[in-house]
Amino acid sequence: MSRKAKIYIFLNATLGVWILGAAMARARPEDSLRYLCYLVGAVITSHLKVRLPGITGTMSVNFFFILIAIIELDRPQVLAIACAGTLGQMLWHASKKPRPVQMVFNLSSIVIASSAAYALFHWRVLGLLDGSLPLRLFVATGAFFFINTVTVSAVIALTEAKSLWSIWRESFVWTSTQYMVGAALAGLVHTLSRHLGWQVALLALRSAECCDSDASRKPDSP
What we know:
Layout: H1 3-24, H2 32-44, E1 49-51, E2 58-60, H3 61-72, H4 75-91, H5 100-121, H6 124-129, H7 133-160, H8 164-171, H9 176-196, H10 199-217
Antiparallel strand pairs: 1-2
Helix pairs in contact: 1-5, 1-7, 2-3, 2-4, 3-4, 3-9, 4-5, 5-7, 7-8, 7-9, 9-10
């Protein structure tokens, strides 16, 4: 690993630890049952993927839990859910255990991306301009997508001495559609939960998981 890559990882980890520590210092035990259910759900479903309608590819169920938490919970709870889901994804059912440096980088990156998305979703200026859920979700998801993919692209570029732009464009730009469709589904689940209860969010994600599992077992048509 190059010296530049090591410095970048150190700075990324430092920022992630600072954001996480500052958020946890202000943590409040509010709506603990819903928070615990989302936290456990993020860990249990950390290795699961669901197919999104109308596009090719899959989306991690973790992304839904992070977005729904951004809408309904506070920042410390959002970051705890993001970290728990990321740890589950790296350690549970993983064919190869990640190295400590990889774990630190992935955790710090998800903390930075989730914190930025939360800040933009709840930004007062954005609320004054247009407080609608679709716009706030679009802006928050765009920030999450950009930060999450650029941080990964940057470490690959520094490690392999390649162009950051080419790596991001070839490996991650196409996933933006998945993020936006995932945001739309999260918004729909949140809207339903307002009328039917937050438990609907968990049931909807469970239903999506079951449907995806059933579809994956069906043989392809000749």
